[in-house]
Amino acid sequence: MTDLVHASPRHPTPEFPDRIDLQLVAEMIEPGARVLDIGCGDGQLLLLLETTRGVDGRGIELSQAGVNECVAKGLAVVQGDADHDLVDYPANAFDYVVLSQTLQATYDPRGVLEHLLRIGRRAVVSFPNFAYWRLRWQILFRGRMPVSSHLPCTWYETPNIHFCTIRDFVALVDEIGATVVRSVTLDGSGNRLPANLPLPLRNTLGEQAVFLLERGQKGKG
Question: Which Pfam families match (predicted)?
Answer without folding.
Answer: MetW
